Amino acid sequence: MGLETDEKVVNYIRKMVAQARSVVAVLGIEMLVEGGGYDLDTNEETYRVEELYGYTPEDMLSTSFFNAKVERFFRFYKNEILTMEVNATPAYDALLKLQAQGKLSAVICQNFHGIPHGIRFHKTIELNGNINSNKCPHCNKLFDLNYMKNAAGIPLCDNCKKTAVRPNIRLLGERVNAKLMTEAANVCEAADVLLIMGKDMYNDRLEYNTDPSRSQLKILFSREQQLSERKVDFVIHDEIQLFLPAIV
After folding, report:
1. What is the C-alpha separation between 170 and 183, in angstroms, rounded?
2. Which of 26, 38, 69, 157 is the most buried (most CB within 10 A)?
3. CATH architecture of 1-37+84-128+175-248
4. Is pLDDT larger for residue 91 or for residue 213?
5. Is pLDDT at 214 greater than 90 in this prediction?
6. Residue 153: which residues within 8 A CB-CB, separation 6 or more?
């Protein structure tokens, strides 16, 4: 199989997934990286970005930075975020198989690059927005991803002329949409198996907001070998795209 996870653990998780009536997948940074993206929160990326732009990714992906330094925000955003190509992996095929079996209740996307093109889930909760959606904060006109990519400098609303178009993503410092968080928390609580596919850049810990009195299998996928205490049943260090097809 080529997995580093103990075979007994793999077999146990496979059995629990087979018996589950409801599985929820929370897509985090690991899914983004395995699909061809990169984690801007690593020490290497933080150093590279700060050397190039003069600020850390965390600084620039914030509401205060967007409001105060919009030109620098878009230079970073267009060069680093919008050029990131995230593709489907065998992990998505495994989730689609769970969906075909009637087990996949929801996919919660924590990354704002969204679901790769061609992948369709019945229920997707985009907790932090999506780079494909952009809106003028003045007149509410919507703009697609190509408009943002092709704009020279700051993408300005072609209706208002002077207003910067705002990406419909949740920037650091902003609260998560309460309605979406409640919806996500509800599907997580109702799940028999919770697949947590990588860390969340916002540290919302949505995956732990479940009823402690309810029996639920929580599996965290992380390539990090050193982890602080997590309220999960298993931490899997294998690649998701290798492990998930093996248990579905």
Report:
1. 17
2. 26
3. 3-Layer(aba) Sandwich (3.40)
4. 91
5. no
6. 71, 74
The C-alpha atoms of residue 32 and residue 61 are separated, in whole angstroms, by 17
Tokens, residue 246: 């093996």
- Rounded to an integer, the average pLDDT of 151-155 is 94
Longest dimension (CA), the chain: 62
**107-150 tens-digit pLDDT:** 999 999 989 989 999 999 999 999 999 999 999 999 999 999 99
Q: Determine the pLDDT at residue 173.
A: 86
pLDDT > 70: percent of the chain: 92
Task: Examine the pLDDT at 238 and tell me if it is beyond 90.
Answer: yes
Q: State the SS3 of the chain.
A: CCCCCCHHHHHHHHHHHHHCCCEEEEECHHHHHHCCCCCCCCHHHHHHHHHHHCCCHHHHCEHHHHHHCHHHHHHHHHHHHCCCCCCCCHHHHHHHHHHHCCCEEEEEECCCCCCCCCCCCCCEEECCEEEEEEECCCCCCEECHHHHHHCCCCCECCCCCCCECEEEECCECCCCCHHHHHHHHHHHHHCCEEEEECCCCCCCCHHHCCCCCCCCEEEEECCCCCCCCCCCCEEECCCHHHHHHHHC
Query: Could you tell me if 2 and 81 are in contact, meaning their C-beta atoms sit under 8 angstroms apart?
Result: no
C-alpha–C-alpha distance, residues 189 and 59, integer Å:
33
Q: Which residue has the tokens 């992996």?
A: 89
Q: Report how far residue 229's alpha carbon sits from residue 9's, in angstroms, rounded to the nearest whole number.
A: 19
